Predict the structure.
Amino acid sequence: MSELRVKNLRREFGSVVALEDMSFDVADGEFFCLLGPSSSGKTTTLRAISGLEDLKRGEVWFDGRNLADAPVQNRGISMIFQTFALYPHMSVAENVAHPLRRDGIAESEIRKRVGEVSELLRITHTLKRKPTTLSGGEQQRVAIGRAIVRRPKLLLLDEPLTNLDAKLRHEMRAEFKRLHRELGMTMLYATPDQLEALTMGQRVGVIEEGRVVAIGTPRDLYGVPDSLYVARMVGSPPINILSATARADGSLSLPFLPTPVAASGVPTGHDLAVGLRPNDIVLADGGGAGETRFAAKIHLTEPLGDVTVFDVAAQGVELKMVLREEVAARYSVGDEIDVAFNPRDLHFFDRASGRRLGIAVEAEP
C-alpha cells in the first residue's frame, strides 16, 4: 500500500523556520494537493519527503516503512520540479532513459520502458529531438516521462505548471488527471494556484507558515472553510470579507444592509468577520424565498469571457459579484442595481483567531 504519512516535520534555515509541525496523510493512489502561497513550505515539504532535506524533527512514512535512513534512490519516489531540468545535450529518448541507465537497467528493458512512457505521454514523435527544440508543453511531458519511467510508487510535483502559459496550464491539468487515472499512482502536487488545487486534487491540504491548517475535498474547503485564512485562499474571485456587529437581541448588523440579519449562536465579545462569496450575490429579479436585498452601484467591470466580475459599492462597502456575460452586458459602470443574497450563504469567523463560528442564520420566508 503506497500510503504516505508525514508527521511533525520541522526544518530550519538559520533563524527562519520553514516547516513547523508539518503533518498530513496521503492515501494509496490518491491525488493530493498542497496549496499555499510562496514561501509557505511547499517545496521544502516535498524535498523532505524525497530525502533532499535534512530534518530537525519529524518522520516520513511511505509504503509501510520509515524513510529516515533510506537513500534517495531507494525510496520509490520521483519528483518533478518547477523547472524542467532537462539535459540539453541529450535527445528526448536519452533524457527519459537517463534514470534507468543510472540504475543499471538492461538496454532492452530501457528501450521497452521509454517506448511505453513516450506512447503514454504522446511524445513518440519527439524522441530523436533535443529539448531546446520542443515547446513548453512537450518539455513538461519529457520531464514527466523521466520521472515515471522508473515506475515510482509516489510522484511528487513541485509547481510543475508555473512556467507554462495559460493555455498549456489548462491542457497539462487535464493531462495530469489522465495520467493519475491511467497509472493509479499516488501523487502529491504542490501549488500556489487554488484553481490547480481545486480542479485536480481529490483532497487538498492548505498550508500556512510551514504547517497544514486544513484538509478537505475541494467542495468542503470552498463551501465550509473552517478559518478566515482558508476562506481567502480558496475561491476565485476571492471571498468578500466584511465586518458585522452583534446586537442585543442576538441578530447581526451588516453595514450594507438596511435591516439586521436574524441569527442564533452569536458569541459576545468577539470581533466578527463575515464572508460572502461573489457567486452567492445575484440580481434581485423578483426574488426567491429567503433573499435579502440591497442597493448597489457598479464601480468596475472585469469581463472574463463567459462571466463578468462586478465591483459594486453599497453603503460605502466594496463587494465583488459574478454575473453571466449575457446578463452583465446590460449594465455599465455607474449603473445602480438591486442585488440579493441568501443569508444562509454567509460565513462567520472570529477576526482575532480566524476560526469559523457556529452561527446559524434565519432567512426571511
The chain has a mean pLDDT of 90. The chain is about 25% helix and 35% strand. The domain at 239-361 is CATH 2.40.50.140 (OB fold (Dihydrolipoamide Acetyltransferase, E2P)). The longest helix spans residues 166-183.
